[in-house]
């Protein structure tokens, strides 16, 4: 493989991972846009989506030989619906009673919910890693070229197709439906939206549900990869941090920014690990990006400066 092939291969891998980060980052940015606080339990909802997907895969006997569009659809729908309900429950029980409390109280509660899900997951699922069945053959190549040979697996194609579909669907919901219009109104001015009769509680629950469903889809996509099919109750910590950084880089509160930030994060990681040969510093990219964006453009690439109400 030539140097050019090597570069483009890692670029493709970066786009694939970036799409995963984008799906998770959307949940962070939507909740922040509406409530102005960070849901640090979001990465653990991602973990729940992975385990629910594992149960579905085992119950249906999903494997490389039994793979079908219907089974794959079920593998995504069940975790997404379940995590959407879980996200709404978390908002109702943990965050809504503290809506008028200080930001610090909400932050501490979010950390508490995160720890509850992580160690509750260890009690329920066990602390030992578990494995998804092999659904996609790692050697399957979906595309090659004559001048540049790229190895694109079926799982990477699935990541790009599902991520693009979900992003388009989310964009439609936000900009073309009444619920989406209500979400944008609450995000712009919570008090005014409440005064004109918008059901703010329902809108906030929908925001949590949508973000949680996206995280569940991302978890299933990652777990289907032959290289990353190991899951455990603490698996959501690092992806959650990286997706949060992606949301900040793009401009926290901006959905488009979250998508762009996720793609940039995935590409930067893979280029650092591949062409630059610094695989040991792959995870450090997220923290370096966070420091740089806070130093030079605190509002993010697509964010707009706002005066916080004290």
Structure description:
- The protein is mainly alpha-helical and 310 residues long.
- The chain has one domain (3-140, 149-296): Orthogonal Bundle (ABC transporter involved in vitamin B12 uptake, BtuC), CATH 1.10.3470.
- Helix content is 68%, strand content 1%.
- It has helices at 3-35, 42-60, 69-95, 103-125, 154-176, 178-188, 190-195, 200-223, 237-250, 255-273, 284-296, and strands at residues 130-131, 230-231.
- Helix 3 packs across helix 8 (200-223) and helix 5 packs across helix 6 (178-188).
- The chain is globular, with a radius of gyration of 19 Å.
- The chain starts with a helix and ends in a 14-residue tail after the last helix.
- The relative contact order is 0.20.
Question: What characteristics describe this protein?
Answer:
310 residues, mainly alpha, ABC transporter involved in vitamin B12 uptake, BtuC, two-stranded antiparallel ribbon, 11 helices
